[in-house]
Design a protein that fits this description.
Layout lengths: L1 H17 L2 H9 L3 E6 L1 E2 L14 E2 L1 H13 L3 E2 L2 H10 L6 E7 L4 H13 L3 E5 L1 H4 L6 H11 L2 E6 L2 E6 L3 H17 L2 H15 L6 H5 L3 H8 L4 E5 L12 H19 L5 E3 L10 H9 L4 E7 L13 E5 L7 H8 L2 H12 L23
Helix pairs in contact: 1-14, 2-15, 3-5, 7-8, 7-9, 12-13
Length: about 375
């Protein structure tokens, strides 16, 4: 299922590229800018083979995307500059921001040198518990469990399932089945479920967070580079929409305050964990506005429009997905044409999900995001 959907989307994007429809329509469909969303950047030989591979791109692809972005006439700017342009209505030239979620150490080791080589600013959004070394990267744990098993025994909604996991396709399908069920239940219940699964499998993943995520000292060193903006990503990386208003306010405030204290600077930009419509909505946008942030990004897929200047607290992003590491795909998406086609299709006949990795809602039963 996964490969056929991915292949279908690649064919659509390639068709738009080869026929040059993306370039022909760009004047009508392109917006004022784009915010790229990444998570991990590391060499192909180090990349995950499991379903979390969609959260990883190579340094070479990042380099290629930066070159493409400038060749298409975009200014690569910081989030502060993007905010200034949105606020001032300065849209003479399109602009692009690069953002990375969660604070993985490979952001420093493999992404930072690429950005430095191009003198391109970028932002890293960090949950404070992650930098403390006690973050729960449950989606990584879930992948590790499934990679270690030939089948996975789980109870979902009170029903026992024995999910086959001996082949790559079966492992991906098992991950997707469990992942989306977890995304629909309360946060603590989801994390307890994965913890129990890890314990039952016998894996020692206790040092996972400290192995993968930048420490406070490493973040301070990285933040000294003028190209780097550090942004907030809550305290524990919880889906805000699942929390009460008071809980959401506290989750945002604690992460925000801890970042400012540890880094010794004001933090003006925010990223919603998971970031789709089921994880963050208008109530949460308002909380972030009240907290004093200048911008906030979601995982809803799309490009920036001039109207985003009215409320820059639910900005969409364009995902640089590990399954789509070709410049032609990025170029077509930056044109805005796929999103214009999608929006037209929805007006004619509302759809759910449509094509994974492309929908503005950010929700997909195949392509997930941990942002």
């Amino acid at each position: 299922m996964r490969l056929s959907v991915v292949s279908c989307l690649k064919a659509i994007l390639t068709g738009l590229y080869v026929t040059r429809l993306d370039r022909a329509m760009a004047g009508l469909t392109s917006g004022v800018g784009v915010v790229f969303m990444l998570h991990r950047v590391r060499p192909a030989e180090m990349a995950a083979k499991g379903p979390n591979r969609i959260l990883e791109v190579t340094p070479e692809f990042l380099d290629e995307t930066i070159v493409l972005t400038r060749r298409l006439g975009y200014d690569i700017v910081s989030l502060d500059e993007a905010h200034a342009r949105l606020k001032g209505g300065e849209f003479d030239r399109p602009f692009a921001c690069f953002t990375l979620d969660d604070g993985y150490r490979d952001n420093r080791d493999h992404a930072l040198p690429v950005f430095q080589r191009h003198k391109a600013p970028f932002a890293v959004f960090v949950p404070s518990d992650f930098a403390d070394g006690r973050g729960d990267l449950w989606w990584v744990k879930l992948e590790a469990v499934i990679e270690a098993l030939d089948h996975v025994d789980v109870r979902l909604d009170g029903v026992h399932h024995r999910l086959p996991a001996s082949t790559r396709d079966q492992k991906d399908a098992a991950f997707s089945r469990i992942y989306w069920w977890l995304r629909a239940i309360p946060e603590q219940a989801a994390r307890d479920f994965v913890a129990e699964l890890v314990a039952r499998t016998g894996l020692d993943l206790s040092s996972l967070c400290t192995e993968l995520i930048l420490s406070w000292g490493e973040l301070r060193d990285m933040a000294r580079d003028p190209l780097v903006t550090i942004g907030a990503h809550t305290r524990r990386h919880l889906a805000l929409a699942k929390l009460s208003r008071a809980e959401a306010v506290l989750e945002i405030a604690e992460g925000h305050a801890r970042l400012e204290k540890e880094l010794g600077r004001k933090i003006h930009h925010f990223s919603y964990p998971y970031g789709d419509e089921t994880s963050a909505g208008p109530r949460d946008f308002e909380i972030v506005r009240e907290a004093g942030f200048r911008t906030a990004v979601t995982t809803r897929k799309g490009i920036l429009q001039a109207t985003d200047s009215a409320s820059p607290f639910g900005l969409c992003r364009l995902s640089l997905n590990g399954d789509y590491q070709k410049a032609r795909y990025v170029q077509v998406l930056m044109s805005g044409l796929p999103f214009a086609i999608l929006n037209s299709a929805r007006r004619l006949r509302p759809t759910r999900g449509w094509i994974p990795g492309l929908t503005r809602s950010g929700r997909s039963r195949v392509a997930h995001t941990s942002s």
